[in-house]
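Milestone M4 deliverable, item 7.
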Amino acid sequence: MEQEHKHEHTHVLEDGTVVTHAHGHTHTHQSTKLVLDRLARATGHLKKVRQMVEDGVDCSEVLIQLAAVKSAINNTGKLILKDHIEHCLVDAIECGDTAAIEELKKAIDQFMK
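Output delivered:
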């Protein structure tokens, strides 16, 4: 899956002239199908956990299954992060897009809460 991101940059030239322009980067995500498959499995598993709660299954069993769903989501997040670093971030750095690094830091902070 390709995704285009535009970031605006401002540069100050040696003569003091300020130039602002936007860079568009097209990023190819190699793991999109794998991520979607993992999300589908996690969604199905979570639905089963919900059914367990509705059926009055023992709380310990529900917690164990919730832990499995949480692990699946975390592993999917790691896959997305690796893909982002290998492709999007490399492209952004090559284009001098330091904003992409800051965006990644914010995303990691949110994901790791």
